[in-house]
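The instructor's notes for this session suggest beginning with a concrete chain rather than abstract definitions. Hand out the sequence below and ask the class to guess, before any prediction is shown, which regions might be ordered.
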Amino acid sequence: MFVILRNIILTCGGQCLKNLTYRSGLTIFSTMSTENQSNIESLESKVEELLALSKKLSIENTELKQQLQDIRGDRSHLVEQREQVRTQVEGMITRLKTIESA
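After discussion, reveal the predicted structure:
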């Protein structure tokens, strides 16, 4: 199986000349219709749009991961505060019961 290393497209009077160079050094010239050239250009445009969207989503994903990490940190802090308050309230209740029974 050959891997395309270079793909050069030249317009030649209504037809497109495509130069494919393979890893083995073999170069093949073929002609494409204007319609095929248009389809390739459309595909290239869509690929560029997908790459831009992928980059945007990657940045958004990174930001969301950071937000999630921040929220988890805040939650952990709130859980600690709740436990401290619980301990204080239990201590007050114990002291009140001690005072009542005295």
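Then share the key points. The two ends are 93 Å apart (CA to CA). The chain has one domain: 4-101.
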